[in-house]
Write a structure and sequence with these properties.
Belongs to the ABC transporter superfamily. It holds the Pfam family ABC_tran. There is one protein chain. The chain is an alpha/beta fold. The protein contains eleven helices and nine strands. The strands form two sheets. A six-stranded mixed beta sheet has the order 5-6-7-3-8-9, with helices on both faces. Strands 2-1-4 form a three-stranded antiparallel beta sheet, covered by helices on one side. Helix 3 runs parallel beside helix 6. The structure holds adenosine-5'-triphosphate. Adenosine-5'-triphosphate binds next to strand 2 and helix 1.
Length: 243
């Protein structure tokens, strides 16, 4: 199987803080990979490295054999941000947000053509948000907000999709819908990386998972990652007491 996301020895420092420390991992095409680690373990920095938004001080990142910034600018990477990272008061409708996934196809005039309208329509149907298309994005539930950004990635035709905590602030039904969508996108050939604190969601969601603590501690099946002795590597021994 071809490698979709490749990090080799990636080290990222913010001043004195070492956010990633020689992180090395390859994720194969068409896989759903969970990303697990405590707060501050470098998950967002790993996403930013894959999107080409931070340049490693050391090491290299490739996304489908391309430089990450080039892969992102050509629409190859979709991103579902953490809710805190979005200004939900912005006067954009659900359709507008999904349409931003088509900007790469539009040229500088950003005038939507029929193919763009069709791609947005189909993406909204797929995430079951057609009836909310004209709603301002702040007037959505937590799960609908996440699904709006998943639809943007679908409209974009992203080959790699990154989801940052997609289950936080989301009800059980939306969690099931997002899990189904992620699995479907991977069956269609996309590679999906999902950071989550919701460890119970991992076995249904992911084919494999990464345990991160600035470096990759373990890259294995969800079942292996969830073994208490492995979780203790990333979360400390108090995770055992909570079992
Ligand atoms: N722009 C920045 N400037 C300085 N330090 C930063 C910056 N961004 C992140 N850090 C630090 O780098 C480390 C890794 O942060 P990062 O956000 O990647 O972790 P995370 O696993 O995503 O955390 P969380 O689960 O809390 O979102 C943390 O110690 C954080 O405080």
């Amino acid at each position: 199987m071809a490698t979709a996301i490749s990090l080799h020895d990636v080290t990222v420092r913010y001043g004195e803080v070492q956010a990633l420390d020689h992180a090395t991992v390859d994720i194969a095409s068409g896989r759903v990979c969970g990303l697990v680690g405590m707060n501050g373990s470098g998950k967002s920095t790993l996403f930013k490295s894959i999107m080409g938004l931070v340049r490693p001080d050391f090491g290299s990142v490739l996304v489908n054999s391309k430089n990450p910034a080039i892969a992102r600018k050509s629409g190859g990477i979709g991103y579902v941000p953490q809710s805190e990272d979005v200004d939900w008061s912005f006067p954009l409708s659900v359709r507008d947000v999904v349409m931003t996934g088509r900007y790469g196809n539009m040229g500088f005039t950003r005038r939507a053509r029929t193919a763009d309208e069709t791609a947005v329509h189909e993406a909204l149907e797929r995430v079951e948000l057609t009836q909310y298309a004209d709603r301002q994005i702040g007037q959505l539930s937590g799960g609908q907000k996440k699904r709006t950004f998943v639809a943007r990635g679908i409209a974009q035709g992203a080959k790699v999709l990154l989801l940052d905590e997609p289950f936080s602030g989301v009800d059980k039904r939306s969690e099931a819908t997002i899990t189904r969508l992620v699995r479907e996108l991977a069956s269609d050939g996309a590679t999906v990386l999902v950071s989550t604190h919701d460890l119970h969601a991992l076995p249904d969601l992911a084919d494999e998972a990464i345990l991160l603590m600035r470096r990759v501690l373990l890259h294995a099946s969800p079942q292996e990652i969830l073994r208490p002795e492995n979780l203790a590597l990333a979360f400390g021994l108090n995770v055992l007491a909570r079992q």
